[in-house]
Amino acid sequence: MAGPGTRAQRERPTVFESYERARRGPKVDEKAWDFEIIPKTATRLKEKYGIHMDKKVMVPTDPDLMRRLYEAGLEMLMECGVYCISTGRVIKWTKEEILMALATAPSSCVIGEGLDARPMLPRSHKDSRPPLVQGGPTGAPCSERWFYAIHESYAKEGIVDCIVDGVLSSVNGYNPAPDSPWEVLAGRQECMMVRMAQAKCGRSGMGL
Amino acid sequence: MRTSDNHEVSQLNELKCDVGALTFTSHYLLAGDIIMVEQMPIFGGFAGGLEETTIVDVATTLNSFVTFSGTWHLDGPVHMRWGITTTREALAIAGHAIMAVKSVWPNLMSGNQYYTLAGPSTRMCLLETAAQAITDTASGREIMSGVAAAKGVITDKTTGLEARFMGECAHAVAGMPTEQTNEILDALVAKYEGDYKTAPQGKTFDECYDTVKVVPNDEYMQVYDEACAEMKELGVNYKLW
After folding, report:
1. Where are the domains of chain A?
2. Å from B219 to nearest chain A CA?
3. Is the CB of residue B137 less than 8 Å away from at least one CB of chain A?
4. How far away is chain A from the Cα of B37, in angstroms, using its nearest Cα?
5. CB of B36 within 8 A of CB of B8?
6. Which domains does chain B have, with CATH numbers?
7. Tens digits of per-residue pLDDT, B49-69?
């Protein structure tokens, strides 16, 4: 098959190809996916690769354990694929396609603009350079009364590099229910208020 | 939104997605946006136990760059019983999964999101935050995303001071030997893991901040100073503490 990641076409897989496979992949029952395919495959791979973790160790130091975990995870993605709940079909990728996507994935980006731009660069566990701080409510609900001030409290922290916003619990007093016009209004108001909070703190180029 | 903002799309538990997510990701891709692909594997959920959930987390992390053309992966292993990312198991899953991925693909970028059990203006909330910040820093994450205190479900229980503590703990331990961070983490998690059933709900933003000046009130600053002192006793020293 000539397609993304094959020798005939070394193209990075994109969401367009994901969608085509979601339309045409093998049909699977969702309950079988959740209660049989995922748990059975994970258990089998744990045994195949002899994986045992110690809860007292948060960060592994054994390179062999890391490698076996990686191989198990890669095999899990290859063997299972990704289930699309909208079509009831499985998006399947070959090993070559997965490796192609990983090899060509972005290895840097810049979050924000101007003086507030923050380069995001790969780190290792030994790195003396700390991770970036994406400060914010991380999707937690905020009232209309305090949304703006809460995000100002994050934007004014010098150690915060960019903002991850909360969600309005109401908009003009209405429930911003999913797939409703109020949800669209809430989304726009959230974005506007975060930008205002950043600007008030003199950080108008800060990423969101 | 600007192209330099993080444009979020979520996978579903476990190794699932929907067409809507693919559709709006196509817009992100064509607009040249940064694509942040989020997924929180559930410890005790479909996958099962510690090792099984870690395997799924590795697969999910890789999938962000395959099915969704992600710029970076936003992780967040979550404990089924407590609904938080700061339990011993959740931290071990996150630490092991990203170290496994990085052992082969050191340039893949990822972050982790923070959901604590305790609410703002409590010692427990800050200690939970510290444990995850240390784990993420010591396992090579590029970015930390938080903090959704009080499990991220109670309105207005979130403030900038939790993010300050998250950042300061990360700055304090960056570059520390892994064996040392593991010893600190084991002792740090032991300080709060026995308190899950009685975790303090904490205060809302307006109860622990001066809402005119938008600064933490004296009571919260006292809690913060006490948490800093506890971290110093464990060997975590930020330059401004």
Report:
1. 15-103, 109-200
2. 16
3. yes
4. 12
5. yes
6. 6-233 (3.20.20.460)
7. 999 999 999 999 999 999 999
